[in-house]
Write a structure and sequence with these properties.
Number of helices: 1
Helix content: 10-25%
Strand content: under 5%
Structural class: mainly alpha
Radius of gyration: 18 Å
Number of strands: 0
């Protein structure tokens, strides 16, 4: 299935919010956010389709891939 964007005729996977909010401060915290993401525990990812018992039967073979 080809990827479709949020705007008709566009292939953008998200709504670009920089038109609506001031993002100028993000450059200043970029390195700090990247560093923090390297330290996030990856063992627990929160609720998942499997744990919530809503896993589509067509995807059950992928349930324990990660």
């Amino acid at each position: 299935m080809p990827h479709r964007g949020v705007f008709p005729g566009a292939a953008l996977p998200y709504v670009p919010l920089d038109r609506f909010i001031d993002t100028s401060a993000l450059d200043e915290i970029h390195d700090e956010v990247c560093l923090a993401l390297t330290q996030v525990p990856v063992e627990y990812t929160g609720g998942s389709h499997r744990s919530m018992a809503i896993m589509p039967s067509s995807r059950t073979s992928e349930a324990h891939v990660d």
